[in-house]
C-alpha cells in the first residue's frame, strides 16, 4: 500500500516536470516566432519611415533646370567677345548642349564659358561650360554651335551671256555667308567693271575670279603700233598682231617693216609695247 503511494507520488512529480518542460517549449517557440516574423516587420516599417523622411527632405529642396535656352545667349556672347570678326558680320546657329538638361540646386549661379575650341572662329565651334552654385562646381556641360560670317559681295543684277563686258549697271551688292562662296570674290564694283564673262551667268549669281577674264583688246590680224622703249628713247613702228590679247597680256606681233616677230605687251586696242 505504502509502495503504491510512493509510485503515485513519483508519477505525479514526473508529470509536473513534463508539464513545465512543455510550457517552456511553448514559450521558446513563441519567442522564436516573434524573432522570425515580428522583428523583421518592425525593422521594415522603421526603415520605410526613415526612407520616407529622407525622401520628404530631398523633395523639399528646390531645384532648377538649365537647358540650351539659358546657355545659348552666353555662348554667343563669348564667341563675339573672342572672335576677330565684327558683331554685325557674325551669326551663331545650331547651338546644342550635352546633356540637354541639367538639374541644379537653388543658389548663387556662376557659369564659366571661357574655354572655346576653335582655330579661326568660323564653322563648328565647341566648348566646355562649368556650372557652379555658391562657388561649388555642380556640372560640366559640353556645348557646340556654328559660326557664319556674312559679307556684302558683288553679284550680277540680271542674267548675262558669255563674253559680256561688265559695267556698274550689271552689278549689285548682296550679303552672303563666306563659307559657301567658292573662289576669290569681290566686294567693290571697280574690281570687276570692264572684265569679260567667261560663261553666261544667272541673275543674283556671285562673281568670282574663275568667271571673269580681261576683255580682248587686240585680235589676231589687227594692225597695231609697236612701241619700243628704253630709259633714253622711244621708237615706234607698224606691226600686225599674231594672237588675241587682253590688256596687259603678252602676244606675238610681227614687225611689218622687218617681218620679224616679237613678244609685246598689250597697252590698248591699237598699241603694244616691247622693252629693249
Write a compact overview of the structure shown.
The chain has 276 residues and is α+β, with helices and mostly antiparallel strands. It contains two helices and 16 strands.
Could you characterize what this model shows?
By secondary structure, the chain is of the alpha+beta class. It folds into four domains: 1-60; 65-150, no CATH class; 151-213, Antifreeze-like/N-acetylneuraminic acid synthase C-terminal domain (Type Iii Antifreeze Protein Isoform Hplc 12); 216-275, SH3 type barrels. It has helices at 2-60, 68-82, and strands at 63-67, 90-98, 101-105, 109-117, 123-133, 136-156, 171-177, 196-197, 212-213, 216-218, 223-229, 234-241, 245-246, 250-255, 261-268, 271-275. The strands form five sheets. Strands 2, 4, 5, 6 and 7 form a five-stranded antiparallel sheet that branches. A five-stranded mixed β-barrel has the order 11-12-14-15-16. A two-stranded antiparallel sheet has the order 1-3. β14 (250-255) and β15 (261-268) form a beta hairpin. It is rod-shaped and about 155 Å long.
What's the topology here?
Elements: H1 2-60, E1 63-67, H2 68-82, E2 90-98, E3 101-105, E4 109-117, E5 123-133, E6 136-156, E7 171-177, E8 196-197, E9 212-213, E10 216-218, E11 223-229, E12 234-241, E13 245-246, E14 250-255, E15 261-268, E16 271-275
Parallel strand pairs: 11-16
Antiparallel strand pairs: 1-3, 2-6, 4-5, 5-6, 6-7, 8-9, 10-13, 11-12, 12-14, 14-15, 15-16
Amino acid at each position: 500500500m505504502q509502495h503504491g503511494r510512493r509510485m503515485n507520488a513519483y508519477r505525479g512529480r514526473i508529470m509536473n516536470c513534463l508539464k513545465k518542460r512543455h510550457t517552456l517549449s511553448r514559450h521558446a517557440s513563441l519567442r522564436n516566432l516573434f524573432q522570425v516574423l515580428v522583428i523583421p516587420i518592425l525593422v521594415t516599417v522603421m526603415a520605410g519611415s526613415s526612407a520616407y523622411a529622407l525622401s520628404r527632405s530631398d523633395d523639399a529642396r528646390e531645384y532648377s533646370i538649365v537647358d540650351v535656352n539659358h546657355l545659348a545667349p552666353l555662348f554667343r556672347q563669348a564667341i563675339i567677345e573672342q572672335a576677330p570678326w565684327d558683331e554685325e558680320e557674325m551669326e551663331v546657329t545650331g547651338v546644342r548642349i550635352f546633356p540637354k538638361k541639367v538639374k541644379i540646386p537653388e543658389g548663387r549661379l556662376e557659369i564659366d564659358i571661357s574655354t572655346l575650341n576653335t582655330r579661326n572662329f568660323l564653322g563648328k565651334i565647341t566648348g566646355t561650360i562649368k556650372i557652379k552654385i555658391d562657388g561649388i562646381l555642380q556640372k560640366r556641360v559640353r556645348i557646340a554651335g556654328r559660326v557664319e560670317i556674312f559679307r556684302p559681295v558683288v553679284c550680277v543684277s540680271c542674267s548675262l551671256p558669255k563674253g559680256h563686258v561688265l559695267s556698274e549697271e550689271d552689278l549689285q551688292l548682296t550679303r552672303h555667308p563666306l563659307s559657301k562662296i567658292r573662289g576669290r570674290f569681290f566686294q567693290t564694283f571697280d574690281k570687276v567693271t570692264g572684265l569679260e564673262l567667261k560663261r553666261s551667268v544667272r541673275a543674283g549669281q556671285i562673281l568670282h575670279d574663275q568667271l571673269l577674264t580681261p576683255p580682248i583688246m587686240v585680235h589676231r590680224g589687227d594692225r597695231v603700233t609697236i612701241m619700243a622703249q628704253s630709259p633714253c628713247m622711244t621708237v615706234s613702228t607698224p606691226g600686225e598682231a599674231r594672237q588675241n590679247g587682253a590688256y596687259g597680256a603678252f602676244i606675238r606681233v610681227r614687225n611689218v617693216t622687218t617681218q620679224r616677230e616679237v613678244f609685246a605687251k598689250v597697252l590698248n586696242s591699237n598699241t603694244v609695247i616691247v622693252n629693249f
